[in-house]
Amino acid sequence: MIAEEEESRKKGKVSIEVYRLDRHPDRSIKMTAAPYNYSYIFKYIIIGDMGVGKSCLLHQFTEKKFMADCPHTIGVEFGTRIMEVNGQKVKLQIWDTAGQERFRAVTRSYYRGAAGALMVYDITRRSTYNHLSSWLTDARNLTNPNTVIILIGNKGDLEAQRDVTYEEAKQFAEENGLLFLEASAKTGENVEEAFLEAAKRIYQNIQDGSLDLNAAESGVQHKPSAPQGGRLNADSQPAKEGCSC
Ligand SMILES: Nc1nc2c(ncn2[C@@H]2O[C@H](COP(=O)(O)OP(=O)(O)OP(=O)(O)O)[C@@H](O)[C@H]2O)c(=O)[nH]1
Ligand SMILES: [Mg+2]
Question: Which biological processes are named by the entry's GO terms (predicted)?
Answer without folding.
Answer: defense response to bacterium; endocytic recycling; Golgi to endosome transport; phagosome maturation; protein transport
